[in-house]
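Lecture 7, part 2: worked example. A protein chain together with zinc ion.
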Amino acid sequence: MGEDVEALERRLPLIEYLRQCNWKGSPVGRSEFVGLCPLHEETKPSFYVNTRKDIFYCHGCGQGGDLIRFVQLSRHLSFRQSLACLDLQPRPAVDSAAVLEQAATFYQQQLDHYPEAMRYLNRRGVHDPALIRELEIGYAPGGSLRRHLTAQGHSFDLLRQGGLLNVNGSDAFYQRIVFPLRQGEHLVNLYGRSIGAAFAHRFLPGTKGGLYAWEKVRHYPEVIVVEGLFDYAVLRQAGFQNVTCSLGTHLNTDQFRQLYDGSRTVHLAFDVDANQSGQLAADQLAHRLGAHGITARRVLLPEGQDPNSFFVQGGDARQFQSLVEAAQP
Ligand SMILES: [Zn+2]
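Predicted complex, written out as C-alpha cells:
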C-alpha cells in the first residue's frame, strides 16, 4: 500500500472524490452539502456530506461513514480492495487558482468587520469605497481562513502547498491588508501588508506576476510606475489612470518586458528615501529601459517621501502632475 489510510484521506477529501464521480451537492450551513444519494434511488436529496468531519450520511438508506466506507458501498469492494482502488486514484488536480480565489473573496468579506483594517486604510489615505471594491482589497485577521477553506472541502495539504497555511497549520496572513494580484482575470498571488509590527510586506510563494493592472494602462503613451500598492491606490484615487505598480524596486523579467513591449514614456515614481535605494533602482531601471528604446524619467518627490506619503501629507493631484511633468531623464 502506497500510503496509510489517514494520509490518503487527508489528500483526498470525501467531497473531492464525490465531485470526481459527478456528484452534485448544494451547501447547507457552514460545512455541509446535500444531494441525491449515490447509493440508492431517490428523487429528493437526503445524502449529506460533512466536510469538516469528512463523512457522509444518507437519511434515505441509512448508510454513512468515511471515504473508504463510501467506496466499499458504492463499488461493492472490501475494505482492502477499496483502499487499493483509492490508492490508484489520480492525485486530484491541485486547483490552486480556485483556492486562491476563495481565499481572496473571504478576505474581502472580512474587511468591513474589522475597524482596525479600515483605520489602517484611512491612515494610508485610501478611503474611496468604489476603489476599495475595484481593487478587491481585503483583510486577513488571521486564525479563520483555514476553518473557512477546509469547510469548503479543500484539503489541509492543498492549503499548505499553496502557502495559505504555515507549516504548523496556521493562517499565513495574520493582520494584513490583502491585495489580490491578477494577470488579466487570472489570480496569481496575494500581497499582504501588515497593519501591525510584523514584517511589512508578504507574498504567497510563487510569482508576483507582471505589472499590477497592466492591461488597464498598456495603451497609454505615458505610464507612471510606483513601487507599492498603497502608492498605486492613492494615485488612482487622485484621478491618475495611467499608473501601474512593480511591487518593489526590483522588476522581474515579465514586468521589464511589459514596459518595453511598445513605445511609451515611463515615469518612475519610486520612494525617495535616505539610503537612496529607491532612486538608485530607478536610475538603473531608466538605463535598462533606455537600452530598449524607451524613454524613462525619474519623478523626484520631496526628500523622504513616496507617492503615498505625498498624498497623505496633503499633496494633491495638480502638485503631483507638476512633479511628473518636471521628471528628469
Ligand atoms: Zn441513500
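The chain has three domains: 5-87, 96-203, 214-325. The pocket of zinc ion is lined by residues 37, 39-40, 47, 58, 60-61, 63 (CB under 6 Å). Keep this in mind for problem set question 3.
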